[in-house]
Amino acid sequence: MYHLYSHNDLDGVGCGIVAKTAFGEQVEVRYNSVTGLDIQVERFLDRAKDKRKQGGLFITDLSVHQENENKLNEYAEAGGKVKLIDHHKTALHLNEHPWGLVKVEYEDGRLASATSLFYEYLAENGLIEKTKAMDQFVELVRLYDTWEWEEAGVLEAKRLNDLFFMVSIDEFEEKMIRRLKENDEFSFDEFEEKILDMEEEKIERYIRRKRREIVQTFIQGHCVGIVHAESYHSEVGNELGKEFPHLDYIAILNMGGKKVSLRTIHDETDVSEIAGAFGGGGHAKAAGCPLTDEAFRLFVQEPFPVEPIKADAFKNIYNLKESESGSLYENREEDQFYLFSAENGWSIQLNGVTQNETFASFEEAERFIKRNYAAWLVRDETFVRFLMQRVKEHLNTTG
């Protein structure tokens, strides 16, 4: 009898689907939160009196704490069969043990997922027979979990995750296992396509609402966007990150679950390190942590009075970014920021006074005022009034 303890997201459940396809009724699968895994492992080891007859233990998409790491090592040395397969860099130290298989990236540069690593491990050890349908399913899980689906343009990966959240884990498992066994290729059925179209529209409406609720603050040296959301964390984090690229990362607060999800679109920001400081972990661009007392103070209590960010005007004809006529921004304190091209780059006028600092590009100048003043691109009518006032002042001066 095999035992699989895995994460309760798409990648973790993907491991369960692979395991049940390989072992059928000869595997017991349990899905856990990040904090719940160690309890399951402790229970398993307590029950393992005759370690050689307890059966094989697989742990996927999650890693154990130091105490359980030591216990698993003792279990393996005594003859117990265990394999931990993960793809988070915070678990790389487990490769020190024969039972640890942690890989963040493949040799060809593709990012790994737990499902892809587990599937390949079983195939290499003759425990599962590869099929085209399973290959396709595993790749969709990998593309979504690593967020490579967006760059690759594989919308089916995102839709697979949408379907995962629309039904129970048991129903999703049953659907996928039956489909993988009965079909030569993996695809969605007609009904699923229709409900997924509806779900896509629902997600878009949800993101539009959250775009109006995000606030901005500095936390431990990072410019952070904070939003409260209980659903669609990856979609919300990704879209808000692209909407407000001056933010280092997006913190998505789930107050009911007492969790913080962290997302970034920037290569220079590693949110797994930020999450690790609060007892969490994850990937460089997607991570999470519990809402500890310190996290609550930094992400909830202190930013609570801050007003939401205002988005840039998007229907303008005249007040455009990088315009030869300059670009006008404002903030909630009614300060005006006029960005204009100068001899040595881009300069900023703050309330009519040209600042000493110049910037090599428009993007750098805009990033500076957005991060430090929470400014936004104003509408055409405000820009036109601004230019008319400048003309009037010029005429009065020369007149």
Structure at a glance:
The protein has 14 helices and 16 strands.
Keywords:
399 residues, 16 strands, alpha/beta, elongated, Diaminopimelate Epimerase, Chain A, domain 1, Rossmann fold, 20% strand, 6-stranded mixed sheet
Give a structural overview.
- This protein has 399 residues and is an alpha/beta fold.
- The chain has three domains: 2-183, Rossmann fold (3-Layer(aba) Sandwich), CATH 3.40.50; 210-301, Diaminopimelate Epimerase, Chain A, domain 1 (Roll), CATH 3.10.310; 327-398, no CATH class.
- It has helices at residues 10-23, 37-47, 66-77, 114-124, 132-145, 148-152, 155-166, 169-182, 190-211, 233-243, 271-276, 293-301, 362-373, 380-398, and strands spanning 2-7, 27-32, 57-60, 82-86, 100-102, 215-219, 222-228, 249-254, 259-263, 281-282, 286-290, 327-330, 336-342, 345-350, 353-359, 376-377.
- The strands form three sheets. It has a six-stranded mixed β-sheet with strand order 6-7-8-9-11-10.
- The N and C termini lie far apart (93 Å).
